[in-house]
Amino acid sequence: MAALPTRTPVPAPHEDGVTPPPEQNGHAPADTSRRRYAVPAAILAAAVAAAGGIYLLAASDDGDATTDPEATPRTAVQATQGDLVEFTELDGTLTYPVVSDVSIGLTGTVTAVAGDGDLMERGSVLYELDAEPITVLYGELPAYRTLAEGAEGDDVLQLEENLASLGYHADLDEDDDEIDGGFEVDGVFDAATTDAVLRWQEDIGAEETGVVEPDDVVIVSGAAVVSDVSVEVGDRVQPGAPVADLNIAEGADAFHSSHSGEIDLVVPVGEPIVSGDVLYTVDEDPILAVVTDDDVELNRDLSLGVADGEDVQVVEQMLVDAGFDVDGTLDVDEEFDEVTEEALEELWESLDGDYDLEVVGSIDADQLVVVPTDARIESVTVHDSEILATGAELFSWTSGSDSRIVTTEIGVDEQDRITEGDAIDIELPDGTVVSGTVTEVAISSTTDPTDPTADPVLPIEITLEAVPESVAGLNELQVDVLLVDELVTGAVLVPVTALVATGDGGYAVEVVGADGVSTTFVAVEPGMFADGSVEVTGIEAGTAVVVPR
What we know:
Blueprint: E1 6-7, E2 35-38, H1 41-51, E3 55-56, E4 74-78, E5 80-95, E6 98-103, E7 108-113, E8 119-120, E9 125-129, E10 132-138, H2 154-165, E11 170-172, E12 178-180, H3 191-204, E13 217-220, E14 224-227, E15 236-237, E16 242-248, E17 251-256, E18 261-265, E19 278-282, E20 285-291, H4 310-321, H5 338-351, E21 368-371, E22 376-380, E23 386-388, E24 393-399, E25 404-411, E26 423-427, E27 433-441, E28 457-464, E29 477-495, E30 499-501, E31 507-512, E32 519-530, E33 533-537, E34 544-548
Parallel strand pairs: 10-13, 20-21
Antiparallel strand pairs: 1-30, 2-5, 3-4, 4-34, 5-25, 5-29, 6-16, 7-9, 7-15, 8-14, 9-10, 11-12, 14-16, 17-24, 18-19, 18-23, 19-20, 22-24, 25-28, 26-27, 26-29, 27-28, 29-33, 30-31, 31-32, 32-33
């Protein structure tokens, strides 16, 4: 009788915990020091469940099953069908998508500072320098010049919008009733704007000058969480000294209406704003939302014969999104044609039952409000049936989600392995794997300045739409980026320890017979190895194979 195969000892794991496959055809396995093997949990669970306490008697020297009660018990598991993946593991850092590094603007002594984890919203005081408060305001423009009476520009408009949102657009009369404060949110710093600034400075405990210096405020794009506080109360600091990092949780903006009249909101607080929806009404006339991230101004009335323009295209996209596409014949372009006119008629006709409207094929600029994608109303300043003064804040909205980004890098020589738009897995320290999307691959390489021999790398940014609650409160976290090297799907899998070496240099598995006791050896060809499992051909999924217990 031919000699039986001999069972191959289980190789010792590498330091990284990965068990290497046996040598095949006289060649040692490739170096996997930077590689990680992963098997879907369902595969491992199936293998464990299949083990189920099945005991086999050891085979005798002549290949027959023995009934020797002293024989070593062995276990059978079922071959499963599943996927194996081999990864390259890249070091990554999970952070907020926008981080603002705040530094000191003037020489002085820190008399107060926010703490790590504190939430900074519009009007919050981040720190005090010589007892003067430095306040958080929302916007996109940095504070770069002194704003005082006579100034004009977008930065003035940004200041006025913040003042209006903080309640300084209105004043109190002698009966403590709110009245129109008088300043218009128009980008012109006039006497009424000065009065509003003075009232704001008085309330926050700042020197009442009516002037806003660049170092009086910190401009951020939305609500932020403080991290990495670099100063303490009592520190004597110089200009440029770091104060703290602000992690911007999400974008925020306020809507300052150019309308005046009786306001009734339609979209509820917390609900996403959908293109084509009625956002609110002014004196019972509906104002529609146009959801777009395009930088476009809707400042002209649109009707048949108007000149081509991007505003036409944006309105046509709004009509399509809202379902008014004239049976699919509306082309989203910059031309206002007869089909665009018909689509607008469909829109107004759909609203005619709720509002007293004239069904026309045109739309006016003051009937539209541009809203960013994913925006939802956060808070309401003017409530239903209130009279809105021109320039007052109607509501604020937030945009974005609980997204975070992961930053990593890859060698320039491997840049073809990853491109923008790729889906990629991120493993958190607790073993949780979440999916992300590659949103940016740098086009300029960097090198480690401390290591002149280091290879150049390309920085990469990966966006996660959400993170598990277990890490949501962390400002920064080290993670692993799993870059797929090899993937097999639908493979027949057995534990590596099921393989036995044959005399001719091949491999076999010991298959359990129908009686649950006898076994035979079946030749198999190993494929990919991962996390203690191996892909094999030569048996089918569901076959019971013997493994050492």
